[in-house]
C-alpha cells in the first residue's frame, strides 16, 4: 500500500467566530420608563429576550400591609425578542417581527 492523498477531499470549515453577548449594553440602550427595570438575556447568536419589569399595583391587595418576598411586587410590563448587532454607529436593535422596539 502506498500513501494516497485525496485531492477532492472536503476542506475543513473554519471555526465560527464567537458572538459577543450584548445584554448589558442593550439594557442601557432600550427605551424605558423611570420606574422600569429591564432584564435582557441572550438566547443564541444575535437573538435576545428583553423584559420590562415595573412595580405591581398594590391597591387591590386584600392585605396591603404584606410587603417584600411574601407577594409578587413586580410584573412584566412589556416583553420583546430582539435581534441585536453592533455597527460603527452603535447597536442596531430590531424586533424579531421586523419593527424597531418602542
The fraction of residues in strands falls at 35-45%
The neighbouring-strand order within the major sheet is 1-2-3-4
Q: Count structural domains.
A: 1
Strand count, sense and barrel status of the largest sheet are: 4 strands, antiparallel
- What is the H/E order? HEEEE
Nearest-integer average pLDDT = 82
Global Rg: 23 Å
Percent of residues in helices comes to under 10%
Q: What is the general shape?
A: elongated
Structural class: mainly beta
Low-confidence stretches: none
Q: How many H/I helical runs?
A: 1
Distance between the termini: 69 Å
Which features does this protein show?
single chain, 102 residues, mainly beta, 4-stranded antiparallel beta sheet, 1 helix, 4 strands, 36% strand, elongated
Can you give a write-up of this model?
With 102 residues, the chain is mainly beta. The chain has one domain (23-95). 7% of the residues lie in helices and 36% in strands. It has one helix spanning 23-29, and strands at 37-44, 47-55, 74-87, 90-95. Strands 1-2-3-4 form a 4-stranded antiparallel beta sheet, covered by helices on one side. A hairpin with a 2-residue loop joins strand 1 and strand 2. The radius of gyration is 23 Å and the shape is elongated.
Give a quick precis of the structure.
Helices cover 7% and strands 36% of the residues.
How does the SSE layout of this entry go?
Blueprint: H1 23-29, E1 37-44, E2 47-55, E3 74-87, E4 90-95
Antiparallel strand pairs: 1-2, 2-3, 3-4
Amino acid at each position: 500500500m502506498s500513501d494516497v492523498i485525496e485531492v477532492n477531499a472536503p476542506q475543513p470549515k473554519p471555526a465560527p467566530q464567537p458572538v459577543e453577548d450584548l445584554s448589558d449594553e442593550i439594557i442601557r440602550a432600550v427605551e424605558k420608563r423611570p420606574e422600569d427595570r429591564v432584564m435582557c438575556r441572550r438566547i443564541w447568536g444575535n437573538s435576545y429576550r428583553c423584559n420590562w419589569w415595573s412595580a405591581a399595583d398594590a391597591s387591590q391587595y386584600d392585605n396591603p400591609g404584606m410587603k417584600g418576598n411574601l407577594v409578587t411586587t413586580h410584573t412584566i410590563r412589556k416583553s420583546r425578542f430582539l435581534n441585536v448587532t453592533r455597527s460603527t454607529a452603535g447597536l442596531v436593535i430590531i424586533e424579531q417581527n421586523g419593527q424597531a422596539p418602542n
